[in-house]
Amino acid sequence: MNHTSQTILGTLVVIGFVMGALFLYERSVRNQAEEDTSAVPEVPVNETPKESIEEYVAKNISTLSAEPEQLGGTFYVTNIEAADGSGIVSYEDGHNAYTADFTYSIDASGNPSIDSFVIRPQ
Q1: How many domains does the chain have?
Q2: Burial of 96 (0-12, 13-18, 19+ CB in 10 A)
Q3: Is the pLDDT of residue 51 over 70?
Q4: Dihedral pair phi/psi, residue 14, rounded to 5°
Q5: What is the chain's mean pLDDT, rounded?
Q6: Could you tell me the pTM of the whole model?
C-alpha cells in the first residue's frame, strides 16, 4: 500500500470513528430527554381543569347581580374572597360599584354553583 492509500484509509477510519461517536452521543441525549419527559404527568386531552369559584363568579357576575349594568357598562370584579362555602365579591360597571355576599357549593364533579347572592345595602 502506498502512502496516498494509507492517508485515505486513515482519513476514512477517523471520519467513521467521529460519525460513530456522534451517533452514540445523539442517541444518549435522546434517551435522556425521553426519561426527563416521562416524569411529567400527562393531563388527558379531553379533561379540562375545573373552574374555581372565583373564576365562576367573575365570569357570571352580570347574571348573578340583581342590579343591572348602567349606561352601557359591563360588570367586572374588583375583589373576591371565597372559602368554606361563602364569599364576598366587589364589582362595578364603571358607574356603580357593589359588594355582595354569596354562598356556593361544589358538586362531586368539581363544578361550582351559587346558592345565594345578596347585594349589601349602600
Answers
A1: 2
A2: middle
A3: yes
A4: -65, -45
A5: 82
A6: 0.59
Same-domain pairing of 29 and 71: no
pLDDT of residue 45: 43
Name the H helices within 1-122: 3-38, 53-64
Q: Does an H or E element contain 84, and which?
A: none
User: Which residue is listed with cell 502506498?
Assistant: 2
Pairing of strands 76-83, 112-119: unpaired
Write the CB contacts of 88 (distance below 8 Å, at least 6 apart in sequence): 79, 80, 81, 82, 99, 100, 101, 102
Helix and strand element counts for the chain (H, E): 2, 4
Task: Print the domain residue range for 79.
Answer: 53-119
Mark whether 16 and 65 lie in a shared domain. no
Grid cell, residue 120, equals 349589601
Of the CA atoms within 13 Å of residue 17, those in its CB half-sphere come to 6
